[in-house]
């Protein structure tokens, strides 16, 4: 699997870059629904879908200092209390950059990752976020768009491995003696109004992929490290949405 080269934007350009690069969700989500509506075959599960992206005014965005995430830019004109449902897109990894502090062995190992391997990791996140918001009193997961529905996508951005990928790290008995964890992941998230395509918020943060629950770095321990780390991210999202709904 190939990855784009790592490139870090200066902080002052980060919000502009977010707004420029994240005009995607309204144009990408539920594309089949648009085609079905045009053909007159839309299903009951397909809500209205934005087909154009409204311009986002940078001056309307501010950095929320009380967020659980390190960076939470939000549209100050948005009323979070109006949203009670969300469409959660699968986590993506296609633009993830591998970074490192000179350990070429780790980088070379992760560069061999297949689509199936990375998709399995992302599925841990997708399963938990759907489970968390399935019956949540903050946002309920849905597949239908509407004026009260957010569309949310998380993306892997940068990954600094502190060990080789699972398939290379484990020995013949399926266990490694590495105690540094899997690595450190930086991620981004985009929140837009599902019906209008209006950008509501952009999030960025990082987390260490490591689990202390297992003494051995085996297959179970590796999977658990990803799952536990993703659970913390989802909980932060839930807490932040709940807080902003009450403001």
What do these coordinates show?
This is DUF3313 domain-containing protein. Keywords: Signal. Residues 1-35 form the signal peptide. Helix 5 (115-133) packs across helix 7 (219-246). This protein has helices at residues 14-21, 25-28, 31-39, 104-111, 115-133, 166-169, 219-246; strands at 61-63, 71-75, 85-88, 97-98, 140-141, 149-161, 175-176, 183-193, 199-209, 217-218. The chain is built from seven helices and ten strands. The strands form two sheets. Strands 1, 2, 3, 4, 5, 6, 8 and 9 form an eight-stranded mixed beta sheet that branches. The protein has 247 residues and is an alpha/beta fold. The longest helix is centred in the last third of the chain and has 28 residues, at 219-246. It starts with 13 loop residues before the first helix and ends with a helix. The protein has one domain.
Radius of gyration: 19 Å
For the sheet with most strands, the description reads: 8 strands, mixed
- Beta-strand level of the residues, as a percent range? 15-25%
The low-confidence parts are 1-14, 22-46, 48-54
Give the overall shape: elongated
Percent helix = 25-40%
Organism: Gilvimarinus algae
Keywords: Signal
Signal peptide: 1-35
Protein name: DUF3313 domain-containing protein
